Amino acid sequence: MALSLYVDTTRWRAHQKSVTDQFPGLVPVCKGNGYGFGHERLAEEVSRFGTDMLAVGTTYEAAKIKDWFGGDLLVLTPFRRGEEPVPLPDRVVRSVSSVDGVYALVGARVVIECMSSMKRHGVLEHELPQLAGAIDDVRLEGFALHLPLDRTDGSDAVEEVIGWMDRLRAARLPLHTMFVSHLRAEELARLQQQFPQTHFRARIGTRLWLGDHESTQYRGSVLDVTRVSKGDRFGYRQQKAASDGWLVVVAGGTSHGVGLEAPKALHGVMPRAKGVARAGLATVNRNLSPFVWAGKQRWFAEPPHMQVSILFVPSDAEEPRVGDELVAHLRHTTTQFDRLVDH
Asked: What residues contact 99, with CB distance under 8 A and at least 6 apart?
């Protein structure tokens, strides 16, 4: 019995097609845990719908996925002098975010990142004149801009890209290809219309693989159910049951990513109030699990174990049975499933 990821394959692939249709020349992104599906599965999907390039996060991911995908591999993490060398084929393209990095990659295929308003990494405007000489010794595949998701200052993503296009053109740098992230289809179309000689390629991961939330579902199998009465002690720490009910052992623990949560940026009064409430409940060992039974998310009876979680289901709910599956609201990018089921 397992923590399973169920995929409505027909619906999932229909969503993939809708995204690839909106973004001609799209570069799919497969990094981390493969957005919850795994590198091998996403490589199969990319090979199925056809593309000449796949983006990965690191050189280590490229070394693994090269055996599953036969096209070009774009490594998104920028090259740094002194990094551990990883044997990679010539079809791997390295991202570079500094003039020094370009000089260090003689003969390599490179994409040069420009510093966007993300302010994460990239060459700066005043460094562009230095690139003119540096790119003579590399095979330049294009430039790239990684843009922010939210623009709380009201700025325009297209204008930011146009600004960099103008700077690159003024520095007499080749503009045959520009890789971009986090642009809408209509924004990409505006850019393509304004710069018809440049091939704009959108790098897309989350929207491509996780854009249709209804096409996937995690479920954990019930392994054991034990009746408890109010005051009964249980678990590693021998806590007392707060009321009558059942202790439900369900597949899915910390090794799967259950109970692990990335920090969230909260906006507005209500989300902040909910965050404070959750923190308050946690101080008295009340933590809501991601597992749903009888229409409600159920509380952890105690912190999740490595491969299972123990939930408390009160006696006023239907008793779960061994073999039942509980839907689990889990974040794809932090979850490792036991099995993937196409249906």
From this structure: 123, 127, 130, 131, 134
